[in-house]
Amino acid sequence: MSGLHLGIQKRGGTLVVTNLDSTDGTLINEKRLRPGAAVSVSPGSRITFGARIFCVGAQPPSAFTVSKVSAAEFPDLSGQSVSYAPVLQFPAGTTNPPHTHPRSAERLLLVDGSLRVGFVDTTNKLFTQTLQAGDMFVFPKGLVHFHHNADARNQALTISAFESAGAGTVSLPTTLFTTSIDDNILAKPFKIDVATIQALKAGPAPKP
User: Fold this and answer.
1) Which residues line the annotated binding site for Mn(2+)?
2) Does 158 score more than 70 pLDDT?
3) Residue 92: what pLDDT?
4) How far is CA 61 from CA 112, 144, 145, in A?
5) Which domain range does residue 163 map to?
6) What's the domain count of the chain?
7) Where is the secretion signal located (predicted)?
8) Residue 21 has pLDDT above 50, yes or no
């Protein structure tokens, strides 16, 4: 990391961040700042340099959030067979629902709090564990897995690493219930009626 990385000044009530031509680069809301460039940042903005991430005047999130660093956000990773989810935030009682990463295993480090994690193997056997700060867990490539913060008061923070610049994420609720798969096709294997499928689809569907 550079000795001088970025400058932060307050100008008339506004924070201004300047990239001091740092070796590792400076990102504002996951977008790289040109060397020497200065930009104003508002409350809630994320400033990233090296392994450090700062949120400007932000309140803790109320829902699970993830920040990704893959080839899409950071083109220098193309061909490097590596990507990160440098900050996964789990407010009290929140869940990252069952999902898969089709092109990579996931190595998760719990930085703060506690977190219940698990995956299901190809024989439908569930492997689960409650992690404490400092614990690590590996989710094998392509297998369905989840993260859940069961603590009713405290948040959990994790860092994840992947062995692909484009690990990909397939969320089961989103894939099944926010796409145009026919209701009858879903109702039969789940052994529920079409009305229930329609209710499920109405729940997680993104707002227009």
Assistant:
1) 99, 101, 106, 145
2) yes
3) 92
4) 15, 25, 23
5) 65-172
6) 2
7) none
8) yes
